[in-house]
Amino acid sequence: MTIPRLVVGALIRDGGDRIFVQQRSWERRLFPGRWDIVGGAVERDEDPMAALRREITEETGWRLRRVLAPLGPAHWTADGVPHTELDFVVEVDGDLSAPRLEPDKHLGHAWVGPGDLALLDQHRIPGESTFITDLVTAAHRWLAAAAARRS
């Protein structure tokens, strides 16, 4: 039995409750050209929160301010390797208009509101998983419910 690889994902929100996504480069082995959230593998001897902080800084230059809610875990397989993904709705510190993308890994970025979800299917192959769209939708649902509780 293969032990799943642990990964983390950050659903970064802005002041308008939009979620940050970035487009993977076409040279990436997994999910080339697809829209994705910030995240990656938890390294050996690293806890998930440390990995979340590291991935946010590496992929955007921003710093994790606080975790608003967990959205996982989720389970998926790529290249025959099972993954367990822990996703979190988060807020960050930094200039949200100027993420520092990793140019060899990401082509661009966007802020996605509930009415912008079609963008996430832009390069998805028919029949392919809607995992990222589902995650962003779950984050929007959580943010809307949190806003309703505050009112």
Give a concise summary:
The chain is 22% helix and 35% strand. The protein is built from two helices and eight strands; from the N terminus they run E-E-E-E-H-E-E-E-E-H.
Description of the structure:
This protein is an alpha+beta fold and 151 residues long. It starts with a strand and ends with a helix. The mean pLDDT is 94. Strand 6 and strand 7 form a beta hairpin. It contains two helices and eight strands, in the order E-E-E-E-H-E-E-E-E-H. The longest helix is centred in the C-terminal third of the chain and has 20 residues, at 131-150. Strands 1, 4, 5, 6 and 7 form a five-stranded mixed β-sheet that branches.
Low-pLDDT ranges: none
Shape assignment: globular
The total of helices stands at: 2
Number of strands: 8
Helix/strand structural class: alpha+beta
**Radius of gyration over all CA atoms, rounded:** 15 Å
Mean pLDDT: 94
Termini separation: 48 Å
Q: Would you list the SSEs in sequence order as H and E?
A: EEEEHEEEEH
Q: What does the largest sheet look like?
A: 5 strands, mixed
Helix content percent band: 10-25%
Strand content: 35-45%
Task: Please outline the helices and strands.
Layout: E1 5-12, E2 19-24, E3 35-36, E4 38-41, H1 48-60, E5 63-70, E6 74-78, E7 81-93, E8 106-112, H2 131-150
Parallel strand pairs: 1-7
Antiparallel strand pairs: 1-4, 2-3, 2-8, 5-7, 6-7
